[in-house]
Design brief:
- By secondary structure, the chain is α/β, with parallel strands linked by helices.
- It is built from eleven helices and twelve strands.
- The chain folds into three domains: 5-70, no CATH class; 74-181, no CATH class; 188-318.
- α10 (270-285) crosses α11.
- The chain has a ten-stranded mixed β-sheet with strand order 3-2-1-4-5-7-9-10-11-12. It has a two-stranded parallel sheet with strand order 6-8.
- It has helices at residues 42-50, 55-64, 66-71, 96-101, 134-141, 159-165, 189-194, 218-223, 245-254, 270-285, 300-308; strands at 74-82, 89-92, 108-110, 118-127, 149-153, 156-158, 171-175, 178-180, 202-206, 233-239, 259-264, 291-294.
């Protein structure tokens, strides 16, 4: 008789997702699973099987008895990364840099569309290639969202999917993506910032050419948000000139412990550059550290002063 009483701690209801589809009986190489005489009611056993409290607990459960994998088939994955051919994914238990140094020989390539089990990603998602419907597929396949780092390049993202993927991430990096509601309308930038979790530490964003997601009230709305208290790095590239500079100045002063690097689009107007010039002067005169405002045609000496005051230690550049 298998004792599992120690594994019955409650699960946060906000992290319980819909019950995964059971894809049929698994054939076992050593024979079929044997009926167990549980020390708990069968209803409790079913609940434990469907709602493991952590990946470690789930792995112990399935190692203890085949029943748990049969009832809730999940593959535990530390990292999910896109392959070079932009159709499949790498999965690995190691750090991505270590995998890259080994030419990803330690990784396994999978096609999520053909995978019959759920996946449980515990650390990083890196989507560096454009794959059609990849974000929606990951959301559909993933059992529970406890991802620490979400990084997506040049993909089409439905806002509801982004909110789910980023719900627990400490680092979110979004580069050149199209982020829309289900009806096809563009998501305003402050709504993207608003969906970040309260434990967010690093937020990277590179804007696309479509500047409709930013307007004169964007920074004012961001200033009202309550989810950025733990923010350490706030880094933007290709910022449009529709960001209100006065509100941006207030934001820079309000989050005094946050490192900010804001690089503006090369096509911003001359009038906007003059407003940024005043902001740069204010940053330099106030001796504010870890603030860089960069744009084409600015005073090179002033830029270097800001860079010299920027502490690169601890900045998550990826």
């Amino acid at each position: 008789m298998i004792k599992i009483d120690s594994l019955t701690s409650s699960v946060d209801s906000s992290k319980i997702v819909s019950i995964p589809v059971f894809y049929g009986k698994r054939p076992w190489p050593c024979g079929a699973s044997v009926q167990q005489n549980w020390s708990l009611p069968l209803s409790n056993i079913h609940y434990i099987a469907k709602n493991p409290t952590s990946p470690k607990v789930y792995q112990k459960l399935v190692q203890t008895c085949k029943f748990f994998f049969e009832k809730n088939p999940i593959i535990i994955i530390a990292n999910l990364d896109t392959c070079e051919n932009s159709t499949k994914y790498h999965i690995s238990q190691k750090e991505r840099l270590e995998c890259k140094n080994n030419n990803f020989e330690c990784c396994i390539n999978i096609d999520l569309n053909k995978l019959s089990t759920k996946i449980w990603i515990t650390r990083d998602i890196l989507i560096s290639k454009h794959i059609e419907n990849c974000i929606a597929t990951i959301v559909q396949k993933n059992f529970r969202f406890e991802i620490l780092h979400l990084c997506v390049f040049d993909n089409d993202i439905i806002f509801d999917d982004l909110k789910v993927l980023a719900s627990s991430a400490k680092r979110v990096s979004l580069y050149y993506n199209s982020i829309k509601y289900k009806n096809g309308t563009i998501v305003i930038f402050d709504k993207i910032v608003e969906c970040l979790p309260t434990n967010i530490e690093t937020f990277w964003f590179i804007f696309r050419n479509d500047v409709s997601m930013v307007n004169a009230s964007t920074m004012s709305n961001i200033l009202k948000l309550q989810n950025l208290e733990n923010l350490q790095d706030f880094i933007f590239y290709d910022c449009p000139d529709t960001l209100n500079v006065e509100d941006l100045s207030v934001f820079i002063k309000k989050f005094e412990n946050t490192k900010m690097y804001l690089a503006f689009d090369g096509d911003i107007s001359q009038e906007y550059k003059e407003q940024l010039d005043s902001l740069v002067d204010n940053i330099i005169e106030s001796d504010l550290p870890n603030r860089v405002i960069a744009y084409v045609g600015q005073d090179r000496e002033k830029l270097m002063i800001m860079i010299s005051r920027f502490d690169l230690n601890g900045v998550s550049w990826f």
